[in-house]
Design a protein that fits this description.
The chain is α/β, with parallel strands linked by helices and 327 residues long. It has eleven helices and ten strands. β4, α2 and β5 form a beta-alpha-beta unit. It is globular, with a radius of gyration of 18 Å.
């Protein structure tokens, strides 16, 4: 699989990584053996980047990744975790002492001395403008608790603020065919600064797979049920903030753009890979088959200019008015 230099770390990562929110059982129950099988399928498919967080299953996702990698010392995987969502979202709590405690917990969960990458996990907006916060992150690097740090953001404005910080290695942002706003300023600014871009929610919580209908019902413990209108966290994390019913209709049209031999989901991933400035895209997978299929998107031929124009037209007609002003 194609490998790209990851921001200011100078390490290389696979253009398709693996998001592991679902392995924490926040998308419904996931058995341990199934989670480990997904990790193994991703690695066998050429994936070298795992994205997790201390809040996914309250540490379960990190623990499963640590267990898997201890059994695969040959696997050269960059593991990116996140911190800051296990406490009240008060900027005053984003302190060096708390950062040390949070990263100590993640180091224990993952079974490592130094975390490859720690990202602030969509913290309150004022955190991005705090010199003390970034000084504390620099201290964690000096103490070798972490090798590098980045941020996970909700808005383009937050991303641009973080990119301006000289120590920021990466920005993780919602970016997909139904969320094009990062193309305008964020991706160009990141490329100019040498900051890596991790594209999350690449399938708009599965919408872009084309598998859902208006009648699709998700389990009660799935965020696509309990956070559909932003009840538990930012609405943009669920279906990219797109209204489900209209999103399903747009997804049917998107599916019609898939080239021969590619699924709609693979087409959505291939579209992201082609955008200048993207380092890696992190679809989740709940089965080995999904992990293999996601990784295969990296080997697809580039989408044609006509297809790229059709994606933009679809967004402008059906999606833009809903989400563009918000994120």
């Amino acid at each position: 699989m194609e490998q790209r230099v990851f921001g200011r770390t100078n390490q290389k990562v696979s253009v398709v990584g693996l998001g592991t929110w679902q392995l924490g059982a926040d998308w419904g129950d996931v058995r341990e053996e199934d989670a480990l099988a997904v990790l193994d399928a991703a690695v066998e498919s050429g994936v070298t980047f795992f994205d997790t967080a201390d809040v996914y299953g309250d540490g379960r996702s990190e623990q499963l990744i640590g267990r898997y990698l201890r059994g695969r010392p040959d696997a050269d995987i960059m593991v990116a975790t996140k911190m800051g969502r296990r406490v009240e979202q008060d900027p005053a709590l984003f302190t060096l002492d708390n950062f040390r405690a949070w990263t100590d917990r993640s180091r224990a969960n993952l079974g490592v001395d130094t975390l490859d990458l720690v990202q602030l996990h969509c913290p309150p907006t004022p955190v991005f403008s705090s010199d003390a916060v970034f000084d504390a992150l620099d201290t964690l690097v000096e103490e070798r608790r972490i090798a590098a740090y980045g941020v996970s953001v909700e808005t383009c404005e937050e991303a641009l603020t973080a990119i301006a910080r000289p120590g920021t290695a990466s920005v993780q942002i919602i970016f997909n065919a139904f969320r094009l706003k990062p193309l305008e300023k964020v991706l160009p600014a990141a490329a100019e600064a040498g900051v890596g871009i991790i594209a999350r929610v690449p399938l708009a919580s599965g919408l872009l797979s084309g598998k859902y209908t208006r009648e699709t019902v998700f389990p009660a413990d799935d965020h696509r049920t309990y956070n559909r209108h932003g009840e538990s966290f930012d609405q943009g994390e669920t279906f990219s903030g797109v209204d489900f019913e209209s999103g399903v209709e747009a997804a049917v049209e998107f599916a019609g753009l898939a080239p021969e031999g590619a699924t709609p989901a693979q087409t959505a991933l291939r579209w992201i890979i082609q955008q200048p400035g993207v380092s890696t895209v992190i679809p989740g997978a709940r089965s080995p088959e999904q992990a293999h299929a996601n990784a295969a998107a990296a080997a697809l031929p580039p989408l044609s200019g006509a297809t790229l124009e059709a994606v933009r037209d679809l967004y402008d007609r059906r999606i833009r008015a809903q989400v563009h002003h918000r994120w």
